[in-house]
Amino acid sequence: MHLLAGARMRKMEGGGVQALARKERGVVLLKRGAPAPVHFVSEERVAEVGHMHADLMGAPGLKLQRQICDPGEALKHGDDDIYDSAFVDAVAESLVKCVSLGYEIAVVVGAGNIWRGRQGGEMDRTEADRMGMLATVINSICLKDAIVRSGGDAHVMSAVPMAPFAENYTAEAAKKYLSEGSIVVFGSGLGIPFLSTDTTGAVRAAEIGADAMLMAKNVDYIYTADPNKDPNAKKLDTIKASEVLAMNLKALDATATAFCLSTGMPIHVFGLKNPDDIIKAVKGEIVGTVVTAE
Questions:
Q1: Would you say 99 and 69 are in contact if contact means Cβ atoms under 8 Å apart?
Q2: Contact 137/148 with Cβ under 8 angstroms?
Q3: Taking a C-beta distance cutoff of 8 angstroms, is the pair 152, 3 a contact?
């Protein structure tokens, strides 16, 4: 099992491992969504960000970075049915592989494949969002099952009481599971309406002491325009979080972006067409767009 490989790696590295893990935790937030127009920055800043990200995510010997992922609508992957079973299994296998490489993986699950609060029409927004929170727990159970079938170990944790379907979330319990080599799947968002799973990922990342948030979307980069509609759209290598907010860009959730700006957490946006890209991103390969705090 991949879990055993990860456990052996921790055992061989000995007592310094946990100190290293506290110093160098990464976060992945896998979120499928549409890009929004952004603007270019200098090549000097691209090089600077690339160097920073390589130091953060890919430096030799940094084997225990904590990652948060948000598959959400990615579990569907197509136009038919709620789940694409083969794709769910592929995502789970990639997550288990990351654990086998020595990374600690947590997952923030969205519910776009089942329900979005804005689909509620004339419904009370709070009630509509509560439906979405319930749907994230359904996705969490689905992903946990796929992880276990892929040879990993997983725990579903919920921000609201959901026994026996999920454990009550506490940061302390989540970090304990992660340190033991389990994948933690977070359901029900933050347990309150009006906040996206992007924001949930940012908050959970801060709670586990993460250093970066990686977001997988349905495009490989953030572009200057929607590449599916504008043939002249160009890839963006880097942009500041403050610029994302000032320009009111929709590629990233504003609340999540502001939270990461306040905590100084960089965001790495990349594509999820190939689940193997999860492994590449977690290992620190610079594929996609880096959003810097400043």
A1: no
A2: no
A3: yes
Q: Which two tokens stand for residue 223?
A: 């572009």
Is 72:34 a contact under the CB 8 Å cutoff? no
Query: pLDDT at position 249, please?
Result: 75
Cis before 164 (ω within 30): yes
| Coil/strand/helix, residue 271 | strand
Q: What is the 3-state secondary structure (H, E, C) of the chain?
A: CHHHHHHHHHHHHCCHHHHHHHHCCCEECCCCCCCCCCCCCCHHHHHHHHHHHHHHHCCCCCCCCEEEECCHHHHCCCCCCCCCHHHHHHHHHHHHHHHHCCCEEEEECCCCCCCCHHHHCCCCHHHHHHHHHHHHHHHHHHHHHHHHHCCCCEEEEECCCCCCCCEECCHHHHHHHHHCCCEEEEECCCCCCCCCHHHHHHHHHHHCCCCCEEEEECCCCEECCCCCCCCCCCEECEEEHHHHHHCCCCCCCHHHHHHHHHHCCCEEEEECCCCHHHHHHHCCCCCCEEEECC
Indicate the CATH number of 2-292 among 3.40.1160.10, 1.10.150.450, 3.40.50.720, 3.40.50.2300. Answer: 3.40.1160.10
- 174: nearest Cα among 216, 205, 211: 205
> Do residues 212 and 53 lie in contact, with contact meaning Cβ atoms separated by under 8 Å?
yes
Question: Hey, what are 36's tokens?
Answer: 């929004």
Mean pLDDT by 10 residues, the chain (294 residues): 25 29 39 36 45 41 49 62 88 94 88 85 94 95 96 97 96 94 94 92 87 76 77 85 82 90 87 85 82 86
CB atoms within 10 A of CB 286: 20
Indicate the domain borders of the chain: 2-292
